[in-house]
Design a protein that fits this description.
The protein has helices at about 20-30, 45-55, 70-80, 95-100, 115-135, 150-160, 175-185, 190, 195-215; strands at about 5-10, 35-40, 65, 85-90, 105-110, 140-145. With about 220 residues, the chain is of the alpha/beta class. The N and C termini lie close together (about 10 Å).
């Protein structure tokens, strides 16, 4: 297990699967629960930094930029004051994504509906296998993200169930509220309380809390 904060890496080697929205949802969920949480933007696109800029004055966790190649060093230094760190990792850079996985305690792999989402996930699973060569005990879960309730989504869920990596019961739907909250620099629960998106975000936080508690006991 890594030193410093319990670190969650959000990893996907291709864009379009909602990686940054998942990172914000996870980070804000723990922040809302009163746990001192740091959001780490290790993606050169800077999505989390842009979100934090839009959210100046809102009740959101702090966001810092880190070079994906130096995560182990920088997390130990900057993250020491935090209980949890959620890392939005670079897409399309397998080496940096592998580094981010290797320094994490838990890896979350977003999977969107359809063949493209599955292909992207399969590529990321290859990088996860490499990271587990360094960290055999590394926890990892797939998160159904932007999935919806279409026939294609159901077919995708069936395929996810066949993978070696477990799939979280909680999932995030293909909901406009997540994108709107992102644009406003807010947590979806604060942006649209009582919505289905807010309910899904809370369920995700509850399930991850149980996983983290077990992980810390190992």
């Amino acid at each position: 297990m890594s030193k410093g904060p319990f670190t969650i890496s959000i990893s996907a080697l291709k864009g379009g699967v909602g990686k940054s929205i998942l990172a914000v949802t996870v980070g804000c969920g723990f922040h809302r629960a009163g746990r001192k949480t740091l959001l780490v933007d290790a993606d050169s696109q800077g999505t989390l930094r842009t979100w934090a800029g839009k959210g100046e004055g809102n009740d959101i966790p702090p966001v810092v930029a880190m070079d994906g190649r130096n995560l182990a060093r920088d997390l130990a230094r900057v993250g020491a004051a935090y209980e949890l760190a959620v890392v939005d990792t670079p897409a399309r850079l397998a080496a940096e994504a592998r580094t981010a996985m290797a320094v994490a305690d838990l890896v979350l792999l977003p999977a969107s509906r359809g063949p493209a989402g599955l292909w992207a996930l399969e590529e990321t699973l290859g990088t996860l296998a490499e990271a587990r060569g360094l960290r055999p005990d590394l926890l990892a879960y797939v998160v159904a993200n932007r999935m919806g309730h279409t026939h294609l989504a159901e077919l995708t869920r069936e395929r996810l169930a066949e993978l070696d990596v477990p799939v979280l019961e909680a999932s995030l739907g293909d909901r406009v509220a997540f994108d709107e909250a992102m644009g406003a620099g807010m947590d979806v629960v604060d942006y649209m309380p009582g919505s289905e998106a807010a309910r899904e975000a809370k369920e995700l936080t509850r399930e991850l809390t149980k996983i983290i508690t077990k992980g810390k006991r190992r």
